[in-house]
DNA sequence: ATTTTCAAAATATCAGATAATTTGATTAAT
DNA sequence: ATTAATCAAATTATCTGATATTTTGAAAAT
């Protein structure tokens, strides 16, 4: 048994929230979850407690748990936080990253670009995998920043951001792909300023696009 | 019964970690904790899970929990994160805060200043209360920033920072008190730039002072 | 010294049980 | 007809005690 029951259920529930299979605001009844995820009520409570301090779940007094709700303001808030952390970390990572790091970025971009080409070709079924690669790429960009605290916070913020993106399954296709390529290029030329500028545009563009789509109203 | 058993125990354990009554690295044996904090093992696990996603506790595979350990690098890391969040939020709060907010800051500073005078007069026994007021003052400064996500992250980061300060019970007396006065004054004149500059000095000074004290080695 | 072995301790997880709270529907009162 | 009061069912919070794994540490063997 590689991982514990709790870890497995934690990962599944978390993904179910992030990818929208558990809708925003949905009540999370303990006994029902226990059935679905094959873990006991006590274990479930542990998991939901963890998720609630990550902001994906809300614990309401004596009224149990529910999936955190979404709002346009919430998206802008989370996006701003993502930008703050990521633009802070990018220059640090760019100046501290070695060849080992650089090649991890190249590898992450390779996977992401492959997926983007597939999506552009009309194959929309692996949205989830695509988003996973998106996350891994962005994470790899800042991985060499040297601050574990920042990377932890970023992980939590990114998944909240991701959930918003998924609520309105938005594929901005060539625009985003181009921005990702520019980001990769800035890594190879170690141009942190350019990377920050593109990233800001990347995130703000995505937020604007999503909000305009009306999916969050 | 105003608050639940879990909430009460959570608060107590958290304070015990932040204020050093539970030492960095100490193992947290479940049955022992259950005795001490008057909660069952299942409830304890819930609490420790929460604390572990806040970074105050480490969950080690199948080996239970322990208090997160400390290191000079960890302090610098957390301090940098605190500065990032706080200097980002200060200008926002300064421009969005109304009179209601301003008066909350004045009130928080009043309590903090009172405590600082007492500590300067040689009465070192209420260190914990002093730190609580310190926290409340800084929290109040950014409270009007408009981002709940930021305030949540800040709360978690601040307590990690606080723990480092408490490990080396450092009272920088008049220096810190002066900086707090300057911060209050910047609120009243809405000078965010000055506030950020003072804050940066405040935090960096405290980190340097603590590291030099050798308490973290 | 290093490795192997094995019992004791601790953890992860579960399945009920109990008390307190919340929810919703029903009834009573304005 | 709306609001308020009432009450049983559902749900949660919490505990106890049980089982299966894992980890730990000491003793034995190499």
List the helices and strands and how they pair.
Two copies of one chain form a homodimer.
Chain A (H helix, E strand, L loop, with lengths): L4 H14 L8 E2 L1 H8 L3 H13 L3 E3 L5 E3 L4 H25 L2 H22 L6 H16 L5 H20 L5 H16 L3 H22 L4
Antiparallel strand pairs in A: 1-3, 2-3
Helix pairs in contact in A: 1-3, 4-7, 4-9, 5-6, 5-8, 6-7, 8-9
Chain A binds a DNA duplex (30 and 30 nucleotides) through helix 3.
The structural domain count of chain A equals 2
Q: Provide a count of the helices of chain A.
A: 9
Computed CA radius of gyration of chain A, to the nearest angstrom: 18 Å
CATH architecture of the largest domain in chain A: Up-down Bundle
CATH class of the largest domain in chain A: Mainly Alpha
Using the coordinates shown, work out and report the CATH topology of the largest domain in chain A. Four Helix Bundle (Hemerythrin (Met), subunit A)
Oligomer: homodimer
Strand-pairing-aware structural class of chain A? mainly alpha
> Quick one: biggest sheet of chain A?
3 strands, antiparallel
Query: Would you list the SSEs of chain A in sequence order as H and E?
Result: HEHHEEHHHHHH
- Please report the two chains with the greatest interface, counting residues with C-beta closer than 8 angstroms to the partner's C-beta: A-B, 28 and 29 residues
Shape of chain A: globular
